[in-house]
Amino acid sequence: MKVELKELAIELYNVGAIRTGSFITKVGLETPIYIDLRVIISYPQLLLRLSKSLWSLVDNKDFSHVCGVPYTALPIATVISTESNVPMIIRRKEAKSYGTKKMIEGIFKTGDTPIIIEDIITSGSSIIETVKDLQNEGLNVTTALVIVDREQGGRDNLEKAGITVKTLFTITQLLGYLFESSKLSEESFKEIKDYINAVKAPLKVQDDNIRLKQTFMARANVAKNSVTSKLFKLMSEKQTTLCLAADFTVCQEIIDLADLAGPHIAVLKIHVDIIEDFDKSFVQKIKSISKKYNFLIMEDRKFADIGQVVSYQYKKGVYKIAEWADLITAHPVPGSGILQGIKEGLNEIAEDRGIFLVAEMSSEGALTTGDYVKSAVAMSKNSDLVAGFVCQKNIFTDPGLIQLTPGVKLTKSSDSLGQQYNTPQDVIHSGGDIIVVGRGITQSTDKLASILEYKKILWEAYESRIEDC
Ligand code: S5P
Protein backbone atom coordinates (compact mmCIF):
# COMPACT_ATOMS: atom_id res chain seq x y z
CA MET A 1 0.00 0.00 0.00
CA LYS A 2 2.79 2.40 0.93
CA VAL A 3 4.42 1.99 -2.48
CA GLU A 4 1.09 2.57 -4.20
CA LEU A 5 0.46 5.67 -2.09
CA LYS A 6 3.88 7.07 -2.84
CA GLU A 7 3.36 6.50 -6.56
CA LEU A 8 -0.03 8.16 -6.38
CA ALA A 9 1.44 11.16 -4.55
CA ILE A 10 4.09 11.57 -7.25
CA GLU A 11 1.51 11.18 -9.98
CA LEU A 12 -0.73 13.81 -8.37
CA TYR A 13 2.25 16.14 -8.23
CA ASN A 14 3.16 15.44 -11.84
CA VAL A 15 -0.32 16.28 -13.13
CA GLY A 16 -0.42 19.54 -11.17
CA ALA A 17 -2.97 18.48 -8.54
CA ILE A 18 -0.45 19.41 -5.84
CA ARG A 19 1.53 22.55 -6.35
CA THR A 20 4.05 24.34 -4.20
CA GLY A 21 4.95 28.01 -4.26
CA SER A 22 2.89 30.91 -2.99
CA PHE A 23 -0.90 30.81 -3.33
CA ILE A 24 -3.83 32.70 -1.91
CA THR A 25 -6.62 30.52 -0.51
CA LYS A 26 -10.36 31.12 -0.96
CA VAL A 27 -10.43 32.94 2.38
CA GLY A 28 -7.49 35.16 1.43
CA LEU A 29 -4.69 33.43 3.37
CA GLU A 30 -1.28 32.81 1.87
CA THR A 31 -0.33 29.15 1.56
CA PRO A 32 2.86 27.47 0.23
CA ILE A 33 0.96 24.33 -0.86
CA TYR A 34 -2.05 24.12 -3.09
CA ILE A 35 -4.09 20.98 -3.66
CA ASP A 36 -6.73 20.90 -6.36
CA LEU A 37 -7.89 17.43 -7.28
CA ARG A 38 -10.32 18.63 -9.98
CA VAL A 39 -7.62 18.05 -12.58
CA ILE A 40 -7.72 14.25 -12.11
CA ILE A 41 -10.71 13.89 -14.46
CA SER A 42 -8.23 14.59 -17.26
CA TYR A 43 -6.23 11.47 -16.29
CA PRO A 44 -8.60 8.48 -16.33
CA GLN A 45 -6.02 5.93 -15.18
CA LEU A 46 -5.05 8.10 -12.22
CA LEU A 47 -8.72 8.62 -11.37
CA LEU A 48 -9.24 4.87 -11.42
CA ARG A 49 -6.21 4.10 -9.26
CA LEU A 50 -7.08 6.78 -6.77
CA SER A 51 -10.68 5.56 -6.55
CA LYS A 52 -9.62 1.94 -6.07
CA SER A 53 -7.10 2.85 -3.36
CA LEU A 54 -9.70 4.94 -1.57
CA TRP A 55 -12.27 2.12 -1.66
CA SER A 56 -9.68 -0.32 -0.34
CA LEU A 57 -9.57 1.68 2.91
CA VAL A 58 -12.83 0.08 4.05
CA ASP A 59 -12.72 -3.62 4.98
CA ASN A 60 -16.41 -4.12 5.44
CA LYS A 61 -17.96 -2.77 2.26
CA ASP A 62 -21.52 -3.25 3.39
CA PHE A 63 -22.82 0.19 2.39
CA SER A 64 -26.13 0.85 0.64
CA HIS A 65 -24.72 3.70 -1.51
CA VAL A 66 -21.70 5.82 -2.21
CA CYS A 67 -22.44 9.51 -1.88
CA GLY A 68 -20.08 12.00 -3.52
CA VAL A 69 -19.78 15.53 -2.19
CA PRO A 70 -19.95 17.96 -5.18
CA TYR A 71 -18.03 18.64 -7.27
CA THR A 72 -14.51 17.22 -7.13
CA ALA A 73 -15.45 13.96 -5.41
CA LEU A 74 -18.31 13.14 -7.79
CA PRO A 75 -16.21 11.43 -10.48
CA ILE A 76 -14.34 9.49 -7.76
CA ALA A 77 -17.66 8.36 -6.26
CA THR A 78 -18.89 7.42 -9.74
CA VAL A 79 -15.84 5.25 -10.39
CA ILE A 80 -16.19 3.55 -7.00
CA SER A 81 -19.87 2.97 -7.68
CA THR A 82 -19.33 1.37 -11.10
CA GLU A 83 -16.30 -0.67 -10.00
CA SER A 84 -17.95 -2.00 -6.84
CA ASN A 85 -21.53 -2.12 -8.09
CA VAL A 86 -22.73 -0.08 -5.12
CA PRO A 87 -25.40 2.43 -6.24
CA MET A 88 -24.71 6.12 -6.00
CA ILE A 89 -26.58 9.09 -4.59
CA ILE A 90 -25.62 12.76 -4.92
CA ARG A 91 -26.25 15.47 -2.41
CA ARG A 92 -27.00 18.62 -4.39
CA LYS A 93 -25.11 21.80 -3.56
CA GLU A 94 -28.43 23.60 -3.27
CA ALA A 95 -32.03 22.45 -3.43
CA LYS A 96 -33.65 22.68 -6.83
CA SER A 97 -35.66 25.87 -7.14
CA TYR A 98 -38.34 24.13 -9.17
CA GLY A 99 -40.23 20.86 -9.06
CA THR A 100 -39.47 18.68 -6.08
CA LYS A 101 -36.89 20.92 -4.34
CA LYS A 102 -35.12 17.75 -3.24
CA MET A 103 -31.54 17.78 -1.92
CA ILE A 104 -30.58 14.17 -2.67
CA GLU A 105 -30.58 12.68 -6.18
CA GLY A 106 -30.85 8.95 -6.78
CA ILE A 107 -32.99 6.16 -5.38
CA PHE A 108 -32.85 5.41 -1.65
CA LYS A 109 -35.09 4.62 1.30
CA THR A 110 -35.19 5.42 5.00
CA GLY A 111 -32.60 3.44 6.94
CA ASP A 112 -30.15 3.13 4.02
CA THR A 113 -26.47 3.38 4.93
CA PRO A 114 -24.42 5.43 2.47
CA ILE A 115 -20.70 6.09 2.73
CA ILE A 116 -19.51 9.60 1.92
CA ILE A 117 -16.71 10.29 -0.57
CA GLU A 118 -14.83 13.59 -0.35
CA ASP A 119 -11.60 14.88 -1.89
CA ILE A 120 -10.16 17.07 0.88
CA ILE A 121 -11.14 17.83 4.47
CA THR A 122 -10.12 21.00 6.21
CA SER A 123 -12.69 21.79 8.91
CA GLY A 124 -14.99 18.96 7.83
CA SER A 125 -17.92 21.33 7.39
CA SER A 126 -18.95 20.20 3.91
CA ILE A 127 -19.13 16.57 5.05
CA ILE A 128 -21.10 17.63 8.13
CA GLU A 129 -23.59 19.50 5.92
CA THR A 130 -23.89 16.44 3.69
CA VAL A 131 -24.47 14.20 6.70
CA LYS A 132 -27.21 16.55 7.97
CA ASP A 133 -29.04 16.43 4.64
CA LEU A 134 -28.75 12.65 4.43
CA GLN A 135 -29.98 12.29 8.01
CA ASN A 136 -32.93 14.56 7.21
CA GLU A 137 -33.94 11.95 4.63
CA GLY A 138 -33.70 9.19 7.25
CA LEU A 139 -30.34 7.81 6.06
CA ASN A 140 -27.78 6.46 8.45
CA VAL A 141 -24.24 7.75 7.88
CA THR A 142 -21.25 6.45 9.82
CA THR A 143 -18.22 6.69 7.54
CA ALA A 144 -16.49 9.09 5.17
CA LEU A 145 -13.65 8.33 2.77
CA VAL A 146 -11.34 11.23 2.05
CA ILE A 147 -8.31 11.56 -0.21
CA VAL A 148 -6.41 14.27 1.67
CA ASP A 149 -6.75 15.37 5.29
CA ARG A 150 -5.31 18.87 5.64
CA GLU A 151 -4.94 18.18 9.38
CA GLN A 152 -6.75 21.33 10.43
CA GLY A 153 -9.25 19.74 12.78
CA GLY A 154 -11.67 18.23 10.25
CA ARG A 155 -11.14 14.70 11.49
CA ASP A 156 -11.89 15.68 15.10
CA ASN A 157 -14.93 17.73 14.14
CA LEU A 158 -16.29 14.77 12.17
CA GLU A 159 -15.54 12.23 14.86
CA LYS A 160 -17.38 14.41 17.35
CA ALA A 161 -20.31 14.32 14.94
CA GLY A 162 -20.16 10.49 15.00
CA ILE A 163 -18.48 10.03 11.60
CA THR A 164 -15.47 7.77 11.20
CA VAL A 165 -13.04 9.26 8.69
CA LYS A 166 -10.65 7.19 6.61
CA THR A 167 -8.11 9.13 4.61
CA LEU A 168 -5.70 8.07 1.90
CA PHE A 169 -3.14 10.74 2.84
CA THR A 170 -2.62 13.25 5.57
CA ILE A 171 -0.99 16.35 4.21
CA THR A 172 2.15 15.50 6.21
CA GLN A 173 2.37 12.05 4.56
CA LEU A 174 1.80 13.55 1.14
CA LEU A 175 4.59 15.98 1.72
CA GLY A 176 6.87 13.24 3.01
CA TYR A 177 6.36 11.17 -0.15
CA LEU A 178 7.14 14.16 -2.34
CA PHE A 179 10.28 14.96 -0.38
CA GLU A 180 11.48 11.33 -0.47
CA SER A 181 11.09 11.31 -4.22
CA SER A 182 12.93 14.63 -4.63
CA LYS A 183 9.90 16.53 -5.85
CA LEU A 184 10.48 19.03 -3.06
CA SER A 185 13.70 20.73 -2.07
CA GLU A 186 14.72 20.52 1.56
CA GLU A 187 14.00 24.21 1.89
CA SER A 188 10.43 24.08 0.60
CA PHE A 189 9.81 20.82 2.49
CA LYS A 190 10.73 22.65 5.68
CA GLU A 191 8.74 25.76 4.79
CA ILE A 192 5.59 23.77 4.05
CA LYS A 193 6.02 21.64 7.17
CA ASP A 194 6.28 24.79 9.29
CA TYR A 195 3.22 26.17 7.59
CA ILE A 196 1.24 22.99 8.25
CA ASN A 197 2.28 23.00 11.91
CA ALA A 198 1.30 26.64 12.21
CA VAL A 199 -2.19 26.14 10.74
CA LYS A 200 -2.89 22.89 12.55
CA ALA A 201 -5.10 24.71 15.06
CA PRO A 202 -8.50 23.13 14.69
CA LEU A 203 -11.06 25.09 12.73
CA LYS A 204 -14.51 25.32 14.22
CA VAL A 205 -17.39 24.15 12.09
CA GLN A 206 -19.64 27.11 11.54
CA ASP A 207 -23.16 26.75 12.87
CA ASP A 208 -25.35 27.91 9.99
CA ASN A 209 -28.37 28.07 12.23
CA ILE A 210 -27.05 30.47 14.83
CA ARG A 211 -29.17 33.34 13.48
CA LEU A 212 -32.32 31.26 13.74
CA LYS A 213 -31.75 30.54 17.41
CA GLN A 214 -31.38 34.14 18.52
CA THR A 215 -34.10 36.55 19.57
CA PHE A 216 -34.68 39.74 17.58
CA MET A 217 -33.68 41.74 20.66
CA ALA A 218 -30.29 39.98 20.83
CA ARG A 219 -29.79 40.49 17.11
CA ALA A 220 -30.54 44.23 17.44
CA ASN A 221 -27.23 44.55 19.31
CA VAL A 222 -25.12 42.96 16.59
CA ALA A 223 -26.64 44.71 13.56
CA LYS A 224 -24.14 46.98 11.79
CA ASN A 225 -26.84 49.11 10.22
CA SER A 226 -28.84 51.36 12.56
CA VAL A 227 -32.17 50.94 10.72
CA THR A 228 -31.77 47.19 11.04
CA SER A 229 -31.20 47.56 14.73
CA LYS A 230 -34.25 49.79 15.07
CA LEU A 231 -36.31 47.28 13.09
CA PHE A 232 -35.28 44.34 15.28
CA LYS A 233 -36.24 46.36 18.35
CA LEU A 234 -39.63 47.42 17.10
CA MET A 235 -40.41 43.85 15.97
CA SER A 236 -39.57 42.67 19.44
CA GLU A 237 -41.59 45.38 21.18
CA LYS A 238 -44.63 45.09 18.92
CA GLN A 239 -44.33 41.29 18.70
CA THR A 240 -44.72 41.33 14.96
CA THR A 241 -42.75 40.05 12.00
CA LEU A 242 -45.30 41.28 9.50
CA CYS A 243 -44.41 43.39 6.46
CA LEU A 244 -47.62 44.41 4.77
CA ALA A 245 -47.41 44.76 0.98
CA ALA A 246 -49.90 47.55 0.26
CA ASP A 247 -49.93 47.08 -3.50
CA PHE A 248 -52.76 49.55 -4.18
CA THR A 249 -52.78 52.07 -7.01
CA VAL A 250 -54.70 54.81 -5.19
CA CYS A 251 -53.12 56.85 -2.36
CA GLN A 252 -56.17 56.82 -0.10
CA GLU A 253 -56.40 53.04 -0.11
CA ILE A 254 -52.79 52.78 1.06
CA ILE A 255 -53.33 55.42 3.73
CA ASP A 256 -56.48 53.71 5.04
CA LEU A 257 -54.72 50.36 5.17
CA ALA A 258 -51.66 51.86 6.91
CA ASP A 259 -53.96 53.38 9.54
CA LEU A 260 -55.71 50.08 10.10
CA ALA A 261 -52.59 47.91 10.13
CA GLY A 262 -50.16 50.37 11.76
CA PRO A 263 -50.24 49.00 15.33
CA HIS A 264 -49.65 45.43 14.11
CA ILE A 265 -46.94 45.64 11.45
CA ALA A 266 -43.17 46.09 11.41
CA VAL A 267 -42.93 47.40 7.85
CA LEU A 268 -45.33 48.89 5.33
CA LYS A 269 -44.08 48.02 1.86
CA ILE A 270 -45.24 49.96 -1.16
CA HIS A 271 -44.56 50.23 -4.88
CA VAL A 272 -44.73 53.98 -5.35
CA ASP A 273 -44.56 53.72 -9.14
CA ILE A 274 -47.92 51.91 -9.36
CA ILE A 275 -49.78 54.77 -7.65
CA GLU A 276 -51.92 56.75 -10.10
CA ASP A 277 -52.64 59.86 -8.01
CA PHE A 278 -49.25 60.27 -6.30
CA ASP A 279 -48.37 63.65 -4.83
CA LYS A 280 -46.10 64.89 -2.06
CA SER A 281 -48.89 64.98 0.52
CA PHE A 282 -49.14 61.20 0.27
CA VAL A 283 -45.57 60.93 1.54
CA GLN A 284 -46.29 63.27 4.45
CA LYS A 285 -49.41 61.33 5.44
CA ILE A 286 -47.78 57.94 5.28
CA LYS A 287 -44.75 59.21 7.23
CA SER A 288 -46.91 60.58 9.99
CA ILE A 289 -48.84 57.27 10.27
CA SER A 290 -45.53 55.38 10.43
CA LYS A 291 -44.34 57.61 13.29
CA LYS A 292 -47.64 57.30 15.13
CA TYR A 293 -47.61 53.49 15.05
CA ASN A 294 -43.85 52.89 14.96
CA PHE A 295 -43.36 50.96 11.74
CA LEU A 296 -40.88 51.49 8.89
CA ILE A 297 -41.65 52.30 5.27
CA MET A 298 -40.13 50.25 2.50
CA GLU A 299 -40.19 51.35 -1.12
CA ASP A 300 -39.87 48.09 -3.03
CA ARG A 301 -38.23 49.76 -6.04
CA LYS A 302 -35.89 46.85 -6.80
CA PHE A 303 -33.20 49.10 -8.23
CA ALA A 304 -31.12 47.31 -10.84
CA ASP A 305 -29.09 49.78 -12.92
CA ILE A 306 -25.52 51.09 -12.87
CA GLY A 307 -24.57 53.05 -9.74
CA GLN A 308 -24.82 56.47 -11.39
CA VAL A 309 -28.36 55.99 -12.68
CA VAL A 310 -29.49 54.34 -9.45
CA SER A 311 -28.25 57.33 -7.45
CA TYR A 312 -30.57 59.55 -9.57
CA GLN A 313 -33.45 57.10 -9.46
CA TYR A 314 -33.10 57.09 -5.70
CA LYS A 315 -32.86 60.79 -4.92
CA LYS A 316 -34.37 62.55 -7.96
CA GLY A 317 -37.33 62.12 -10.32
CA VAL A 318 -40.94 62.47 -9.24
CA TYR A 319 -40.69 60.32 -6.14
CA LYS A 320 -37.42 61.36 -4.42
CA ILE A 321 -37.40 58.00 -2.65
CA ALA A 322 -34.25 58.73 -0.64
CA GLU A 323 -36.11 61.47 1.23
CA TRP A 324 -38.77 59.27 2.77
CA ALA A 325 -38.21 55.50 2.45
CA ASP A 326 -36.52 53.97 5.50
CA LEU A 327 -35.83 50.85 3.47
CA ILE A 328 -35.50 50.02 -0.20
CA THR A 329 -34.88 46.90 -2.24
CA ALA A 330 -32.13 46.50 -4.84
CA HIS A 331 -31.05 43.71 -7.16
CA PRO A 332 -27.40 42.69 -6.83
CA VAL A 333 -27.21 42.00 -10.58
CA PRO A 334 -25.22 45.16 -11.54
CA GLY A 335 -22.47 44.38 -8.99
CA SER A 336 -21.41 46.34 -5.92
CA GLY A 337 -21.55 49.68 -7.80
CA ILE A 338 -25.26 49.68 -7.07
CA LEU A 339 -24.54 49.97 -3.35
CA GLN A 340 -22.18 52.85 -3.99
CA GLY A 341 -24.82 54.52 -6.17
CA ILE A 342 -27.37 54.25 -3.38
CA LYS A 343 -24.86 55.63 -0.89
CA GLU A 344 -24.21 58.53 -3.25
CA GLY A 345 -27.96 59.16 -3.40
CA LEU A 346 -27.92 59.68 0.37
CA ASN A 347 -25.38 62.51 0.33
CA GLU A 348 -27.84 65.08 1.59
CA ILE A 349 -29.99 62.79 3.72
CA ALA A 350 -29.48 62.81 7.47
CA GLU A 351 -31.82 59.94 8.44
CA ASP A 352 -30.69 56.33 8.63
CA ARG A 353 -31.48 54.13 5.66
CA GLY A 354 -31.23 50.43 4.83
CA ILE A 355 -31.17 48.24 1.73
CA PHE A 356 -32.53 44.76 1.23
CA LEU A 357 -30.68 42.94 -1.53
CA VAL A 358 -32.95 40.71 -3.59
CA ALA A 359 -30.95 37.50 -3.45
CA GLU A 360 -33.78 35.13 -4.40
CA MET A 361 -37.22 35.71 -5.85
CA SER A 362 -40.42 33.92 -4.96
CA SER A 363 -41.66 33.60 -8.53
CA GLU A 364 -41.63 30.37 -10.51
CA GLY A 365 -38.54 29.90 -12.69
CA ALA A 366 -36.66 32.81 -11.06
CA LEU A 367 -33.04 32.92 -12.25
CA THR A 368 -31.79 33.80 -8.78
CA THR A 369 -30.12 30.48 -8.01
CA GLY A 370 -26.72 28.96 -7.19
CA ASP A 371 -23.71 31.23 -7.38
CA TYR A 372 -25.89 34.31 -7.90
CA VAL A 373 -27.30 33.88 -4.41
CA LYS A 374 -23.83 33.35 -2.92
CA SER A 375 -22.48 36.44 -4.67
CA ALA A 376 -25.41 38.48 -3.38
CA VAL A 377 -24.55 37.44 0.16
CA ALA A 378 -20.86 38.18 -0.40
CA MET A 379 -21.74 41.65 -1.73
CA SER A 380 -23.27 42.68 1.60
CA LYS A 381 -19.99 42.16 3.44
CA ASN A 382 -18.50 45.52 2.54
CA SER A 383 -21.55 47.69 3.01
CA ASP A 384 -23.00 49.04 6.23
CA LEU A 385 -26.16 50.02 4.34
CA VAL A 386 -27.31 46.45 3.79
CA ALA A 387 -30.09 45.57 6.22
CA GLY A 388 -30.60 42.06 4.90
CA PHE A 389 -31.80 39.96 2.00
CA VAL A 390 -35.05 39.30 0.21
CA CYS A 391 -34.88 35.53 -0.10
CA GLN A 392 -36.76 32.32 0.36
CA LYS A 393 -34.43 30.32 2.60
CA ASN A 394 -31.60 30.47 5.10
CA ILE A 395 -28.80 31.70 2.81
CA PHE A 396 -26.69 33.72 5.27
CA THR A 397 -25.46 33.34 8.83
CA ASP A 398 -24.89 36.91 10.12
CA PRO A 399 -27.45 37.42 12.93
CA GLY A 400 -27.18 41.18 12.39
CA LEU A 401 -28.92 40.91 9.01
CA ILE A 402 -32.60 40.27 8.29
CA GLN A 403 -34.23 37.71 6.01
CA LEU A 404 -37.30 39.25 4.37
CA THR A 405 -39.44 36.59 2.76
CA PRO A 406 -42.34 37.29 0.38
CA GLY A 407 -44.68 34.80 -1.26
CA VAL A 408 -46.79 33.95 1.80
CA LYS A 409 -50.43 32.89 2.22
CA LEU A 410 -52.22 30.69 4.72
CA THR A 411 -52.13 27.77 2.29
CA LYS A 412 -49.41 26.74 -0.15
CA SER A 413 -50.60 27.99 -3.54
CA SER A 414 -49.75 30.16 -6.55
CA ASP A 415 -51.29 32.92 -8.66
CA SER A 416 -51.77 32.92 -12.42
CA LEU A 417 -48.65 35.05 -13.06
CA GLY A 418 -45.93 32.93 -11.47
CA GLN A 419 -46.12 34.02 -7.83
CA GLN A 420 -45.62 31.07 -5.47
CA TYR A 421 -46.90 31.02 -1.89
CA ASN A 422 -45.65 29.12 1.13
CA THR A 423 -47.28 29.01 4.56
CA PRO A 424 -46.29 31.34 7.44
CA GLN A 425 -44.89 28.42 9.47
CA ASP A 426 -42.80 27.14 6.55
CA VAL A 427 -41.20 30.49 5.78
CA ILE A 428 -40.33 31.25 9.40
CA HIS A 429 -38.69 27.84 9.74
CA SER A 430 -36.82 28.45 6.46
CA GLY A 431 -35.19 31.44 8.12
CA GLY A 432 -37.69 34.23 7.35
CA ASP A 433 -37.46 37.06 9.90
CA ILE A 434 -39.80 39.60 8.34
CA ILE A 435 -42.58 38.12 6.29
CA VAL A 436 -44.23 39.94 3.41
CA VAL A 437 -47.96 39.40 3.02
CA GLY A 438 -49.83 41.23 0.28
CA ARG A 439 -52.99 39.85 -1.27
CA GLY A 440 -53.42 37.39 1.61
CA ILE A 441 -54.49 40.52 3.51
CA THR A 442 -55.44 43.13 0.92
CA GLN A 443 -57.96 40.87 -0.81
CA SER A 444 -59.53 39.69 2.39
CA THR A 445 -63.08 40.84 3.20
CA ASP A 446 -62.10 41.57 6.82
CA LYS A 447 -58.62 43.09 6.51
CA LEU A 448 -58.09 43.74 10.21
CA ALA A 449 -58.98 40.16 11.10
CA SER A 450 -56.51 38.94 8.46
CA ILE A 451 -53.74 41.22 9.70
CA LEU A 452 -54.23 39.95 13.24
CA GLU A 453 -54.34 36.34 12.09
CA TYR A 454 -51.09 36.57 10.09
CA LYS A 455 -49.40 38.51 12.86
CA LYS A 456 -50.32 35.88 15.45
CA ILE A 457 -49.41 32.82 13.37
CA LEU A 458 -46.09 34.36 12.31
CA TRP A 459 -45.12 35.43 15.82
CA GLU A 460 -45.93 31.99 17.23
CA ALA A 461 -43.86 30.37 14.49
CA TYR A 462 -40.93 32.69 15.34
CA GLU A 463 -41.23 31.84 19.05
CA SER A 464 -41.27 28.14 18.28
CA ARG A 465 -38.23 28.57 16.01
CA ILE A 466 -36.08 30.14 18.71
CA GLU A 467 -37.19 27.47 21.19
CA ASP A 468 -36.68 24.52 18.79
CA CYS A 469 -33.22 25.46 17.60
O1 S5P B 1 -39.28 37.66 -4.77
C1 S5P B 1 -40.09 38.52 -4.46
C2 S5P B 1 -39.69 39.75 -3.94
C3 S5P B 1 -40.66 40.65 -3.55
S1 S5P B 1 -40.16 42.08 -2.75
N1 S5P B 1 -41.41 38.26 -4.56
C4 S5P B 1 -42.37 39.17 -4.21
O2 S5P B 1 -43.56 38.85 -4.33
N2 S5P B 1 -42.00 40.39 -3.72
C5 S5P B 1 -43.01 41.41 -3.37
O3 S5P B 1 -43.85 40.94 -2.33
C6 S5P B 1 -43.92 41.80 -4.53
O4 S5P B 1 -43.39 42.89 -5.24
C7 S5P B 1 -45.23 42.12 -3.84
O5 S5P B 1 -45.26 43.48 -3.47
C8 S5P B 1 -45.20 41.28 -2.57
C9 S5P B 1 -46.00 40.01 -2.64
O6 S5P B 1 -47.36 40.28 -2.78
P1 S5P B 1 -48.46 39.11 -2.69
O7 S5P B 1 -49.75 39.84 -2.97
O8 S5P B 1 -48.17 38.10 -3.73
O9 S5P B 1 -48.40 38.58 -1.28
Low-confidence stretches: none
Instruction: Please name the fourth-level CATH homologous superfamily of the largest domain.
Output: Aldolase class I
What does the largest sheet look like? 8 strands, parallel, barrel
Query: Got a strand count?
Result: 18
Distance between the termini: 45 Å
Q: What is the helix fraction of residues, given as a range? A: 25-40%
Compute the CA-based radius of gyration. Answer: 26 Å
Q: What is the spatial order of strands in the main beta sheet?
A: 9-10-11-12-13-14-15-18
Categorize the overall geometry: elongated
Structural class: alpha/beta
Q: How many domain units? A: 2
Q: What report would you give on this structure?
A:
This protein has 469 residues and is of the alpha/beta class. It folds into two domains: 2-198, 3-Layer(aba) Sandwich (Rossmann fold), CATH 3.40.50.2020; 210-468, TIM Barrel, CATH 3.20.20.70. Helix content is 39%, strand content 19%. The protein contains 18 helices and 18 strands. Strands 9-10-11-12-13-14-15-18 form an eight-stranded parallel β-barrel, surrounded by five helices. Strands 5-4-3-6-7-8 form a six-stranded mixed beta sheet, sandwiched between helices. A two-stranded antiparallel ribbon has the order 1-2. α13 links the parallel β11 (296-303) and β12. α1 (2-14) packs antiparallel against α2 (44-55) and α11 packs parallel to α12. It is elongated and about 80 Å long. The two termini are 45 Å apart. Bound molecules: 6-sulfanyluridine-5'-phosphate. Residues 245, 247, 300, 329, 361-362, 390, 406-407, 419, 436-440 line the site of 6-sulfanyluridine-5'-phosphate.
